Amino acid sequence: MRVLVLHSHPVEESYGKALYRQTVESLEKAGHTVDGCDLYEEQFDPVLSRRDRLIYHDYPENLKLVEPHVERLKAAEGLVICTPIWNFGFPAILKGYFDRVWLPGVSFELVNGKVESRLRHIRKLAAVLTYGATPFRAFAAGNPPKKIVKRVLRAQINPVRPVTFVAHYDMNNCTSETRAKFLARVGNAMERF
């Protein structure tokens, strides 16, 4: 299976980058073909410009500035999001990726006023997330990233399939042991993806 791995952590030698490498290595070990999309390394522009918004619904004109990313998304059979959670949301670069790449004609189409998915070719979805907050604080805040992955993205991709969701909470108080344990958990989850 061809798996697109979206990564959004700006620090090269970080735990987030280690999780990304573990994700890619474990997917490859399981026999998947991995398209690693490190948004910072690729210098992805997350800004939805005025022009982008004006042509947002004009397919295929809306693809021109992000066509390589659209082609990668269209080629994917699996999608893994590997990112830190900042202030109970995705980093701006990842949010911008969704705003600029998941366009009408690419991820959805309006048919008689109703949204129809165009991502049914993606058979599996996973998220590898790190939170500074504890599980309780994330829950109390509504845990928007978890809901986006397990409800919104799942509905767009395949509403009846389970989602692999692994999260390391309380990174503010983590230890080398908790990080190592989570790294192993990510490896196991991706090998079963």
TrEMBL record:
Example GO molecular function: oxidoreductase activity
Main EC class the enzyme belongs to: oxidoreductase
Domain named Flavodoxin-like fold: residues: 1-142
Protein keywords: Oxidoreductase
Keyword Oxidoreductase: yes
Name of one Pfam family that matches: Flavodoxin_2
EC number: 1.-.-.-, 1.6.99.-
Superkingdom of the organism of origin: Bacteria
Family (UniProt): Belongs to the NAD(P)H dehydrogenase (quinone) family.
Official protein name in the record: NAD(P)H-dependent oxidoreductase
Organism from which the protein derives: Rhizobium brockwellii
